[in-house]
Amino acid sequence: MSKKTKYIFVTGGVVSSLGKGISASSIGLLLKKRGMKVASIKSDPYLNVDPGTMNPFQHGEVYVTDDGSETDLDLGHYERFLDQSLGKDHNVTTGQIYNTVITRERRGDYLGATVQVIPHITEEIKNRIKRFERSDEPPDVTIVEIGGTVGDIESLPFLEAIRQMGQEEGPQGAMFVHVTLVPYIRSAGEYKTKPTQHSVSELRAIGIQPNVLICRSAKPLSDSLRQKISLFCSVPPSNVISAEDAATIYAVPLGFHAQELDDIICTHFGWELDPPDLTEWETMVEKITNPQKRIKIGICGKYVNLKDAYKSIIEAFVHAGVYSGAEVDLVWVSSEDIKHYGAEKFLHDIDGLLIPGGFGERGVEGKIESIRYVREKNIPFFGICLGMQCAVIEFARNECDLPDAHSYEFYRELKHPVIHLMADQEGVTELGGTMRLGAYPCRLAPGTKSMEAYGEENISERHRHRYELNNAYRQKLTEKGLMIAGVSPDEHLVEIVEVPEHRWFVGVQFHPELKSRPTRPHPLFREFVKAAVEYNQERTGEKAAQDVAAGLSKSSG
Ligand code: GLN
């Protein structure tokens, strides 16, 4: 029987950052748990072809998929909630749409027609949204999140395209979910529904009547507010879903389920499905909200004030914390501060240090200094991409007697470029999509912490880099005690370094955070957090013993 894919369109109103991505992911999870095959698409209204060339300050993390696309961070939420690997077809930008349409126009494909936003741009948007329906195994439902906020000029072609799809697919074929804000006005002591009403009338002016409203607010919506929103927005009260601030994003689908949102969707599409089994998910949320212990991990990076730049790392720590029953407190340390004031001041009471990926020289000396500190003090260390490269520079400088070791990324005239440009990057001048991107295999060496963590020899991890450990320095580094724990199958590229005599010191050229899932933490994050918990117990145990000893000596004196 041929299956017709249904569509759920998720729009946002009033303000940005309301959690449309989390709402779309939560709906996806609930439907998947009810046995549906789910596809997710994020549309982004900007003119960049992809976010790969965008500054993380403006756009947050660039999420890299297995197929090597550089995508919006919402794809990270989709992958984490749905536990399924996505790719380039799951992120659609205005830049891509125009690129395609203009290329066709130059080829003469439009046979002399005037090329216009409607119908040509909107047709191409619909074409991409319907791509999965044309595949060999079409999904039961495609959830499409429309980036931006209703009322933005640049979102209009996307909204027009989904309006048309609403008509074409018919009432049982498509559903519109609008995520909106119900703010609390302190001086009035009241929650206000007017912004939601305005946002819904804006949508209606475009021709879209939402079927469901997801209302973000500080506290659960009262019945009277629900009734009022229902009346003004022509949405049944049951379809006004309260999405109050949650202790963890992973609790959001449970809140939706408690308000029967998945039943509402099933009824709308005429699906008769068994209820979802959310036991594993509930246990995970329970563990996040009731941690047994607490540890402190220092993160030393450039964008310490912008947590979205490290979204997947933050989530990977939540997942690993669940495994160890610990809440991982992330202490953001500016690498510039370390450079100026020294590592001791900021890192003396951490249980582990993570240096994330990055580009550019700013802050690198502070990162190298913080690595020296934790390596010498035997504090757990995890370096990711640039973090691994900094660990190699630190080791070369302080253990291999190469004080001017550095990366070719930052200085072209170097005596000891221990990090060098990858051979296939030479001569690359275009920035977009030209790094070593996506999933590549890696072989682990026996007897290493990495092998112990993964429990298998051959792994695959996602990458985003241009530079690598310079093979001319491999021998010198290993002679002095740096271990090559993982390499590409042809052995040319170093993927993992470790310091075996250290309690836990691992640097990886890839981005493990991209493959961590809430119910399946990444092995390296899991083991790093475990090592940090053990170190914390040792450290605080020692301290308690010292305190006792000090107390005893006082009382006896
Ligand atoms: N800038 C470094 C490189 O290109 C590291 C990249 C990263 O950390 N993602 O190799």
User: What is the molecular shape?
Assistant: globular
Number of strands: 23
> Would you tell me the overall average pLDDT?
93
In CATH, the architecture of the largest domain is 3-Layer(aba) Sandwich
The CATH superfamily of the largest domain appears as P-loop containing nucleotide triphosphate hydrolases
Q: pLDDT under 50 segments (min length 5)? A: 553-557
Major sheet details = 9 strands, mixed
Bound molecules: glutamine
- In whole angstroms, the N-to-C terminal distance is 88 Å
Would you kindly provide a written description of the structure presented here, covering whatever features stand out?
It contains 19 helices and 23 strands. With 557 residues, the chain is an alpha/beta fold. The protein folds into two domains: 6-283, Rossmann fold (3-Layer(aba) Sandwich), CATH 3.40.50; 291-540, 3-Layer(aba) Sandwich (Rossmann fold), CATH 3.40.50. The strands form five sheets. It has a nine-stranded mixed sheet with strand order 13-12-14-15-23-22-21-18-19, with helices on both faces. It has a seven-stranded parallel sheet with strand order 5-2-6-1-7-10-11, sandwiched between helices. Strand 21 (483-487) and strand 22 form a beta hairpin. The longest helix is centred in the C-terminal third of the chain and has 34 residues, at 523-556. The protein is globular. Bound molecules: glutamine. Glutamine (GLN) binds next to strand 19. Residues 357-359, 385-386, 409, 464-467 line the site of glutamine.
